[in-house]
């Protein structure tokens, strides 16, 4: 039976939260774990009183070790930039199994071992007050799907099989952990990145992201004057650029450039002498285009103002015939699943790894990505267990 290649569209919650993916949007951060009273607190980084959310009393009663790790991590707030307590819990798990482990200078949890495979997922989550509970063997809570479920399943599989593991920080904002990793570590023989694909899904492709800020200034004049002011010039530039990339109806989302203005600020300067306009923009770039192609078009449409670009993340599309993809297909079938090969319209840390490391890779993890960042985020514990089984089988195959 052949695996099926499908495109997975991002939900509205994913698209909204992705506006922070390049670090230009601010993210309120949570910071501490569940306390003895059955509640967790999270500092928001602003100096205000900590946010509080409920954790079900006796949350981990009756769970096995792998499930307990997952529940503990979901009950530990880990918004981007405030992952330290979750990182300590992850580190303690590896220490309990006599594995070498440390937290590096940016906050990544590093547990090197057999580099035939590197399992890596992100520790951080987006903000969100989702009460942490288990009902009918389903775990509810922020990060249960994106991506604490994949993270915990990889930690368990790494301990079971003796392969390398890294939990990275700030994937939801700047990808600080992944960039640090590729700049300070040699490439492994293979990479499995952790994001929700469903226990029977294997993600092979992601679009890249190019983001930046348009800045324009014009002389302040009476509104009856016919000349464009800076705000009009900014709107006109963005309209021309978006029109250029308008997709044909026959093209799927994955194969098109998606243009998105993230924020817009404009008006007179404080001294009353000029008009300023500032627009934060994002382009999702498919593998059939290069980042430079999109940047060239955007700059070519400028008549006024300029664009200050952020560090881009390139698109990625891996081969479904690599040893990593083959190992996943075999392991999923052995668990009575029908493998699905996915292409996602968002961006992940796998884009960074693929751009810097020349080795086979794929992205995998339990959970329905439609629930990423959603107020009803939850993960079936049976799916989590199945993902651990699949990951263990894949790692055993790749380390033979």
TrEMBL record:
Q: Which Pfam families does the entry link to?
A: Peptidase_M20
Going by the UniProt record, its keywords in alphabetical order are: Amino-acid biosynthesis, Arginine biosynthesis, Cobalt, Cytoplasm, Hydrolase, Lysine biosynthesis, Metal-binding, Zinc
InterPro entries reported for this sequence: ArgE/DapE_CS, LysK, Peptidase_M20, Peptidase_M20A
Task: Please state where this protein is localized.
Answer: Cytoplasm
Catalytic residues at: 124, 171 (proton acceptor)
Similarity annotation:
Belongs to the peptidase M20A family. LysK subfamily.
Alphabetical GO CC annotations of the entry are: cytoplasm
Ranges annotated as biased composition (Low complexity): 33-49
Gene name for this UniProt entry: lysK
Origin, by domain of life? Archaea
Which residues lie in Basic and acidic residues bias regions?
A: 1-18
**Region feature (Disordered):** 1-53
- List the cofactors: Zn(2+); Co(2+)
Q: Per its UniProt entry, what is the enzyme's top EC class, as one word? A: hydrolase
What EC number(s) does the entry state? 3.5.1.130, 3.5.1.132
Cofactor descriptive note = Binds 2 Zn(2+) or Co(2+) ions per subunit.
Q: Does the keyword DNA repair apply?
A: no
Annotated residues for binding of Zn(2+) 1: 122, 146, 195
Q: What is this protein called?
A: Putative [LysW]-lysine/[LysW]-ornithine hydrolase
Q: Which GO terms describe its molecular function?
A: cobalt ion binding; hydrolase activity, acting on carbon-nitrogen (but not peptide) bonds, in linear amides; zinc ion binding
Q: Which reaction does it catalyse?
A: [amino-group carrier protein]-C-terminal-gamma-(L-ornithyl)-L-glutamate + H2O = [amino-group carrier protein]-C-terminal-L-glutamate + L-ornithine; [amino-group carrier protein]-C-terminal-gamma-(L-lysyl)-L-glutamate + H2O = [amino-group carrier protein]-C-terminal-L-glutamate + L-lysine
Q: Which organism is it from?
A: Halogeometricum pallidum JCM 14848
* Record's function text: Catalyzes the release of L-lysine from [LysW]-gamma-L-lysine and the release of L-ornithine from [LysW]-L-ornithine.
Q: Enumerate the Gene Ontology biological process terms.
A: L-arginine biosynthetic process via ornithine; lysine biosynthetic process via aminoadipic acid
Residues holding Zn(2+) 2:
146, 172, 373
User: Which pathway or pathways does this protein act in?
Assistant: Amino-acid biosynthesis; L-lysine biosynthesis via AAA pathway; L-lysine from L-alpha-aminoadipate (Thermus route): step 5/5; Amino-acid biosynthesis; L-arginine biosynthesis
């Amino acid at each position: 039976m052949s695996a099926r290649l499908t495109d997975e569209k991002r939900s509205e919650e994913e698209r909204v939260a992705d506006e922070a993916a390049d670090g230009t949007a601010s993210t309120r951060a949570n910071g501490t774990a569940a306390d003895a009273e059955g509640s967790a607190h999270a500092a928001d980084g602003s100096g205000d009183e900590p946010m509080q959310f409920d954790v079900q009393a006796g949350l981990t009663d009756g769970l096995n070790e792998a499930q307990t790790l997952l529940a503990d991590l979901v009950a530990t707030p880990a918004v981007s930039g405030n992952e330290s307590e979750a990182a300590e819990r992850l580190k303690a798990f590896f220490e309990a199994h006599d594995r070498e482990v440390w937290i590096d200078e940016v906050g990544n949890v590093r547990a090197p071992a057999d580099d035939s495979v590197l399992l890596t997922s992100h520790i951080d989550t987006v903000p969100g007050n989702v009460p942490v509970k288990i009902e009918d063997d389903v775990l509810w809570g922020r990060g249960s799907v994106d991506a604490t479920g994949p993270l915990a399943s990889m930690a368990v599989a790494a301990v079971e099989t003796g392969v390398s593991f890294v939990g990275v920080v700030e994937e939801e904002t700047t990808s600080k952990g992944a960039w640090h990793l590729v700049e300070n570590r040699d490439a492994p023989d293979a990479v499995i990145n952790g994001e929700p694909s469903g226990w029977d899904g294997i993600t092979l492709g992601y679009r890249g992201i190019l983001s930046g800020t348009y800045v324009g200034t014009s002389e302040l004049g009476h509104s009856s004057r016919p000349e464009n002011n800076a705000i009009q010039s900014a709107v006109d530039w963005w309209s021309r650029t978006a029109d250029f990339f308008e997709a044909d109806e026959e093209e799927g989302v994955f194969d098109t450039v998606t243009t998105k203005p993230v924020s817009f600020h404009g008006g007179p300067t404080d001294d009353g002498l000029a008009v300023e306009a500032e627009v934060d923009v994002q382009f999702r770039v498919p593998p059939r285009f290069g980042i430079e192609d999109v940047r060239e078009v955007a700059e070519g449409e400028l008549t006024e103002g300029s664009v200050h670009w952020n560090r881009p993340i390139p698109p990625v599309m891996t081969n479904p015939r690599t040893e990593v993809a083959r190992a996943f297909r075999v392991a999923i079938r052995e668990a009575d699943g029908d493998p699905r090969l996915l292409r996602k319209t968002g961006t992940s840390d796998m884009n960074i790894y693929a751009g810097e490391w020349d080795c086979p890779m794929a992205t995998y993890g339990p959970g329905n990505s439609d629930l990423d960042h959603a107020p009803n985020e939850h993960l079936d514990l049976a799916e989590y267990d199945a993902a651990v089984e699949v990951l263990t089988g894949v790692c055993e195959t790749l380390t033979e």
